[in-house]
Amino acid sequence: GSVVPVLVERGCFGRTEHSILIEINNEVPAGEIADVLVTGVNGSRLEGKSMDGCRRIL
Known about the structure:
The chain is mainly β. It has one domain. The protein contains no helices and five strands. A hairpin with a 5-residue loop joins strand 3 and strand 4. The radius of gyration is 10 Å and the shape is globular. The C terminus is likely disordered.
């Protein structure tokens, strides 16, 4: 599927303290768990799960 940019709200991913951009391979309804690839503000990338508080920002 196409990559969809998603905004992760504060505290949504692990212990992040700020909103960050992630990429998901498929559109996922809010509240569902998505496999995500996180790009931090410094360019670092982490894989993990997004559990809630996410929305599309296309």
